């Protein structure tokens, strides 16, 4: 999870650099390429997953809701920064376009000091000692055996669950309505204008 987030941040910094240099290069295509790279990044789902996995159970819901709050706050800051009096002027708009690289840079610098998520270490890597060490680093010293037992139960449950490929998921009739809802919600988010804002 952590390595994927870090690679994703590198992608965002490259995208920000491309968009920031578009005026110097006199190339609107660079803006399109940079926006496309921002669009294919996996920031939101990865961030939710990582934050949810490193949070203690009693704070998990709160931690996941704060990421939505900061996502919305970022959009509001972008909207305010885009005003003509701030970075929306003819000379400063490349800085506005490149500003998406600032949070990515902050996360890229700070993320190495955080451990990998405990469920990932235990369920996918089978590293029980690494999981305990990550839990102590994240949640402090104390009795965390109940959380480790929960992760082990989840791992046992996952063994009996068949993991479907994307094609199998699309063909499975039991998941058809859930897929329709996800597609409709995702499409309406794209069409509501929030990305343009």
Automatic annotation (TrEMBL):
SUPFAM superfamilies cross-referenced by the UniProt entry: MFS general substrate transporter
Domain Major facilitator superfamily (MFS) profile: 1-197
Location of the protein in the cell: Membrane
One GO process term, biological-process aspect: dehydroascorbic acid transport
Membrane spanning stretches: 92-114, 177-196
The entry's keywords: Membrane, Signal, Transmembrane, Transmembrane helix
One function term, GO molecular function aspect: D-glucose transmembrane transporter activity
Its membrane topology: Multi-pass membrane protein
Main location as per UniProt: membrane
Signal peptide, first to last residue: 1-27
Domain of life (superkingdom): Eukaryota
InterPro entries linked to this entry: GLUT (IPR045263), MFS_dom (IPR020846), MFS_sugar_transport-like (IPR005828), MFS_trans_sf (IPR036259)
Protein known as: GTR5 protein
Protein's organism: Sylvia atricapilla
